[in-house]
Amino acid sequence: MTEKSFLERVSGGLGTTVTTTLIAASGGGYLAPLLPALTGALANQRYQKRVEEALQELNQRIAENEQVINLITDNQLRLVNEIVSAIMHTTNAEKIEVLKRSAINGITADNIDDHEASIISRVLRDISILEFEFLLRLEEVQAVIVAGTDERPKSNNPDQLWIDANEQDAEFLIGLVNLGLVSPTGSGVGGTLNYRVLGVAHKLMSLARH
Length: 210
Description:
Keywords: Coiled coil. By secondary structure, this protein is an alpha+beta fold. It contains ten helices and four strands, in the order H-H-H-H-H-H-H-H-E-E-H-E-E-H.
C-alpha cells in the first residue's frame, strides 16, 4: 500500500466532478516542494492541511447554493476556478481565507465582465496579504498622495490618504500600482505624487472583504 498523494486526499471526499476540476485548475498538481527532502517538512504538512480544509469547506459552501450555481455566468465560473487554483498554490493561512471569501462571493457576483475577471483572478493570485490589508484602507479614499512628512497638511481630509515616501505603505502602494488596482494621476503642489483607486479594485474588495 502506498500513501495517497495530497491531491488524492483532497479530492477523495469531493466527488469525481470536483476532482476533475481541481486537477485542471491546479495545472495537474499543487505547490509541491521542489526538493524531495522538503516533502516531510512541518511547513509542507501545515500547508497541505490548510488547503485540504479550505477546499472541503469551499465545496460545501458553494454546493449549498444550487439555484445560484445553475445561473452563474462564464465569467463567474472562470473566476471561481482560478481562485481555486490560487488556493492550491497558497501557503499563507490569512490569504487562503481571503481567497475562500472571494470564491464564495464570486458565485453571486454577476456584475464582473471578462476583463475584470481576468484582473481580479490575477490579482488574487499575486497580491500579498499585507498589500491586501493596505488596499482595504483605500476603500473610502478618493486620492492617495505620497509626500514628505513636512509636506502633509495640518488638517486631514477624509477623502485623502497621505503617505510618507519613506514609509512601508509607499511600497504597498507601488505593489498595488503594479497589480493594476491603483493608477498615478500626476504630481501635485510641492512635488507630491497623486494616485487614484480604480473601479476594479473596489469590485475585488467587495468580493474578498465580507
